[in-house]
Amino acid sequence: MSVRKRFFQRIYFTKKLPFIRLRSNKRASLILVKDRFNDCKTEAEKLLYQKLFSELYYPTPRMYVGGIQINIALVPYRLAFVEACSKEKEKRIIKQLRKKRWHVLFYDPAQITNADLCDEYLAKQSKLPAIYGLVRF
Question: Which of 3, 83, 87, 92 falls 20 to 30 Å from 22 in CA-CA distance?
């Protein structure tokens, strides 16, 4: 396929300014699958990691995106689990990660103290994974 044809396939029209836009040609990012359980520092991170790993998702602990540290990341889904902090800080984190097209879920480490509470958090508190079809608990 020629370069010109690929370029014109990326063009689409909108009703708002600018009327002509280009589609993004970014593809889903891939990540090398490794067992990085030892990189988890807190007990809540370890529980989240184990639960997601047991459900055949490959979480990445302690990852930096846009200068923000993500405690547990599901890279192909662009889903970030970040430890809860002050409201101002949470707004800044959401804003920074939204620019990079990530979805953010905040968790309280005091709520995730055992595997049952971790299941409950993933099933009920986090609405976004249900959209992606991630919740199978």
Answer: 92
